[in-house]
Design goal:
The complex is a heterodimer of chains A (336) and B (245).
Chain A lengths: L1 H18 L7 H8 L5 H35 L12 H20 L11 H23 L5 H24 L3 H12 L7 H20 L1 H7 L3 H6 L4 H23 L5 H13 L4 H23 L10 H24 L2
Helix pairs in contact in A: 1-3, 1-13, 3-8, 3-11, 3-12, 3-13, 4-5, 4-6, 4-7, 5-6, 5-11, 8-11, 12-13, 12-14, 13-14
Chain B lengths: L2 E9 L1 E2 L2 E2 L7 E3 L3 E5 L6 H8 L7 E6 L2 E2 L5 H5 L2 E4 L11 H7 L13 H13 L15 H15 L3 E4 L8 H17 L3 E5 L3 H7 L2 E4 L7 E3 L1 H6 L2 H6 L7
Helix pairs in contact in B: 3-5, 4-5
The chains are: A mainly alpha (336), B alpha/beta (245).
Chain lengths: 336, 245
C-alpha cells in the first residue's frame, strides 16, 4: 500500500516537474508536447530543459539517499551522511582549483570566458571527490575502528575546505561568484548527453548497493556478531565505502554538493516500512529519495521564485525537520 | 563423545606477557562449562584467543580436528557462535531479523531463508521461550528477553560450540536462575558444547557440572564444583576467605 503511494507520488511529482516552472506552459500545449506535437518553444522548454532536469533530480535523489543509507549502516550512526568522509569537500576543492586558481594565474576571471562549460567543472569535481575517496580507502585499511575513520574523514573535509577558503580569498570576484553558485547545487546543469553517464552510474551503484544487503544487515548487528556470522569486516567495509563514495562523487560532480537528502531519506524509509532489513530498505530508500528530490526541485522552481531557488536551501528546509524528528523519536524509544 | 575443542600448549596474553602457564584442555560435544575468575584474570583474553580475535603467544587451538587459523571466516561461523554482553541497538531490528541472521553463514549472497530454516527459527525461539516476541522490536525487550533471543540466534546458527560472555550479567535473580536452567537444557538436549563466563558463583556451583577456574599466573584448573571446593581451588583462585556454602 505504502509502496503504491510512493510510486504514484513519484509519477505525479515527475509530471509536475515537467509542467511547472518560470514559464507557464498551458496544459493543452503540455499534452501536445507529450504526444509528439506542440509548438517549438514549448517543446524546447519541456523536452530540452525540464525533462533532463527532472531525470537529474530523480537520479540524484536515488544516489544520495542510498549513499547516506550505506554510511549510516556502516558507522551505525543515524546522523552519518554521505559527506561524512569528506568526499563532497574534495569535490569542492577540485572545482575551486579549476574555477579560482586558473583565474588567479591568468589574471582574469575564467568563469567569464566564453566556452567555459559545465563539463570542466564536472570533471574537476569528480577528480576531487575521487581523490578523497581513494585517500579514505587507503587509510581505512590502516585504521582499527570506524570511529577513527569518521574522525579522519572529518579532518580531511576541514583541510579541503580550508584550502578552498584560501583560494577564494585570493580570487577574482566573478570566479568566487561562479564557485558560490556551484556550491548551492543544481539539477539543471546536466544536458541530455551527460544524462546517460549520470543515469548509468547511479543504476550501477544502486545495483551494487543492493548486492551488499546481506553484509549491511550483518554490520547492523555490530562488528563482533557480524564477524562471528562469517562476514569479513574489512573487505565488507571497503566495498560499502567504495559504493557509497562512488555514488556521492558522481552526484556531486554533476549537481554540486547537495545536503540533507542523503541524511533524511534513509530515516523516512525506515519509518515508512518499519524495517532495517536492507533487502527491503534499499529499494525503499531509492524510491523515497527519488520522490523527495523531485519534490525539492519542484519547490525550488515554483512560480513566484523567479527561476531557480538554490536547491540546497530547499533540501535543508525539507530535510532538517525530518532529522530533528528522528532525534526526538530515538530519544523517546531509547529511554523507554 | 566427540571432542570439539582442544588447546595444545596454549599460552595466552597481551604484548608477549603470558597470563597463565601453558594450558592443555579439551571440550567434548555436550560439555557445559563455566569459566570463572576474578575481574582482570584473563577470561576475556581467553575468549578472544579461542575465537581467533587474538593470536596465542604459544601453542594452538584446534576446533573439530583442524587448527583454528586454518578455518575460513565462513567455516568458523559454522563452528562456534557467540552470545556477547553487547547487544544490537538499531531501533528497527526485529527479533526475527536477529535470529534469522543466524542462518546467514548457511545462505548465499541474497540471504534467502528456505522453508525448513523458517521452521528452525520458530523452533529455537520456542525452545528459548521467546517465540511470542518474534515480531517485536529488539530494543524494546527486557535484558533477559534480549539474552534469550541472542541464544536463539546462536542455536539457529547451528554450531557445535557456543561461547557466552557473562550471559547472566545485568539480569535480576529469577532471570539468572531461568537462564542457567536454559543453558543446561541446551547443552543436554541440543548436545551443544557451551563455554560461558560468569560471576554468579552460587548459581554456577549449583547448575554447572564442570568449571574452568582461572587466576593470573596460576594454571587453569578444571573440575566439578564438588571437587574444586574440596581442593579449596575456588577460594584460593578467587581470593575468598570463607565460602558461605
Amino acid at each position: 500500500m505504502a509502496t503504491l503511494g510512493i510510486l504514484l507520488a513519484g509519477v505525479l511529482l515527475f509530471v509536475l516537474n515537467l509542467l511547472v516552472g518560470s514559464v507557464t506552459v498551458p496544459f493543452r500545449q503540455f499534452w501536445e508536447v507529450l504526444t509528439g506535437a506542440g509548438d517549438a518553444t514549448a517543446r524546447t522548454i519541456i523536452l530540452e530543459y525540464r525533462l533532463p532536469q527532472a531525470f537529474t533530480a530523480l537520479f540524484a535523489g536515488i544516489g544520495l539517499s542510498l549513499s547516506g543509507l550505506l554510511m549510516q549502516t556502516l558507522f551505525r550512526n543515524p546522523l552519518a551522511d554521505p559527506s561524512i568522509l569528506g568526499i563532497s569537500s574534495g569535490a569542492s576543492l577540485g572545482v575551486a582549483l579549476v574555477v579560482l586558481l586558473t583565474g588567479q594565474l591568468s589574471g582574469m576571471a575564467v568563469s567569464t570566458l566564453p566556452g567555459w562549460s559545465t563539463v570542466g567543472v564536472t570533471i574537476a569535481a569528480f577528480a576531487g571527490a575521487f581523490l578523497v575517496l581513494l585517500l579514505i580507502l587507503a587509510l581505512s585499511s590502516r585504521l582499527q575502528s570506524m570511529v577513527s575513520l569518521i574522525l579522519v574523514g572529518i579532518m580531511i573535509a576541514y583541510i579541503a575546505s580550508s584550502v578552498t577558503d584560501v583560494l577564494k580569498f585570493f580570487s577574482q570576484k566573478e570566479d568566487v561568484h561562479t564557485f558560490v553558485i556551484w556550491g548551492f547545487g543544481s539539477f539543471s546543469n546536466v544536458g541530455k548527453p551527460q544524462l546517460w553517464y549520470l543515469g548509468s552510474c547511479i543504476l550501477a551503484g544502486g545495483f551494487a548497493a543492493y548486492l551488499l544487503s546481506k553484509s549491511l544487515n550483518l554490520l547492523l548487528l555490530g562488528e563482533r556478531y557480524a564477524e562471528n556470522l562469517g562476514l569479513r569486516i574489512r573487505r565488507a567495509s571497503l566495498l560499502v565505502i567504495l559504493v557509497s563514495g562512488f555514488l556521492m562523487a558522481v552526484i556531486t560532480a554533476f549537481c554540486g554538493p547537495i545536503a540533507f537528502i542523503g541524511l533524511a531519506v534513509p530515516h523516512l524509509a525506515r519509518f515508512t516500512y518499519h524495517t532495517s532489513d536492507h533487502f527491503k530498505l534499499i529499494p525503499a530508500t531509492a524510491v523515497i529519495g527519488m520522490d523527495l528530490a523531485l519534490l525539492c526541485n519542484l519547490i525550488a522552481r515554483l512560480p513566484g521564485f523567479d527561476g531557480n531557488l538554490p536547491i540546497n536551501s530547499v533540501t535543508a528546509l525539507v530535510g532538517a525537520p525530518i532529522v530533528i524528528y528522528v532525534i526526538f523519536h530515538r530519544q523517546k524509544v531509547l529511554s523507554k | 563423545m566427540n571432542e570439539v575443542l582442544r588447546t595444545n600448549g596454549l599460552v595466552i596474553g597481551y604484548e608477549g606477557k603470558a597470563l597463565f602457564p601453558a594450558m592443555d584442555v579439551a571440550l567434548k560435544q555436550g560439555d557445559h562449562v563455566a569459566l570463572i575468575g576474578a575481574n582482570g584474570s584473563g577470561k576475556t583474553t581467553l575468549f578472544k584467543t579461542l575465537t581467533g580475535h587474538l593470536k596465542p603467544l604459544q601453542g594452538s587451538v584446534t576446533l573439530c580436528g583442524k587448527p583454528l587459523e586454518d578455518h575460513s571466516a565462513n567455516e568458523r561461523a559454522k563452528l562456534f557462535s557467540l552470545v556477547l554482553t553487547e547487544k544490537p541497538d538499531d531501533l528497527f531490528l526485529k527479533v526475527y531479523d536477529i535470529v534469522a541472521a543466524g542462518r546467514y553463514p548457511h545462505s548465499g549472497l541474497m540471504a534467502r531463508i528456505p522453508k525448513q530454516d523458517e521452521e528452525m527459527i520458530q523452533e529455537k525461539l520456542q525452545l528459548t521461550g521467546v517465540l511470542h516476541l518474534i515480531d517485536r522490536d529488539f530494543v524494546s525487550l527486557s535484558d533477559g528477553e534480549k539474552q534469550k533471543v541472542m541464544i536463539a540466534k546462536a542455536l539457529v546458527q547451528d554450531t557445535p560450540i557456543i561461547y557466552m560472555d557473562e550471559p547472566t550479567a545485568f539480569l535480576d535473580y529469577p532471570s539468572k536462575v531461568e537462564l542457567m536452567q536454559l543453558i543446561r537444557k541446551i547443552a543436554e538436549e541440543e548436545h551443544k558444547t557451551i563455554l560461558y563466563s560468569s560471576h554468579d558463583l552460587e548459581l554456577i556451583l549449583k547448575h554447572c557440572p564442570l568449571l574452568w577456574v582461572v587466576a593470573k599466573g596460576k594454571p587453569l584448573t578444571v573440575g566439578s564444583p564438588k571437587e574444586l571446593l574440596e581442593r579449596h581451588i575456588i577460594e584460593h583462585y578467587l581470593s575468598i576467605d570463607n565460602l558461605p556454602l
